[in-house]
Amino acid sequence: MIGVNGEIYNDKSELDVVKTKFRTKSDTEFALRGIEQFGVNFISELDGEFSLCLYNRKTKSL
């Protein structure tokens, strides 16, 4: 589960690292799919003004 507040500036069409079909055009989904594919280090690839909270249901941790 993820919560994002703010704006991610990366151009999703130019940042061709997330190989998935998106259901929305939201920054939140983009961040979540990137984290799912590459792990939390993906966050360091994001450019913008945002805060992000990620909850892992399996480990019950933030």
TrEMBL record:
Residues 1-62 form the Glutamine amidotransferase type-2 domain. It holds the Pfam family GATase_7. InterPro entries: GATase_2_dom, Ntn_hydrolases_N. PROSITE patterns: GATASE_TYPE_2. It comes from Pseudoalteromonas ruthenica. It comes from the Bacteria. SUPFAM superfamilies: N-terminal nucleophile aminohydrolases (Ntn hydrolases). Transmembrane segments: none annotated. This is Glutamine amidotransferase type-2 domain-containing protein.
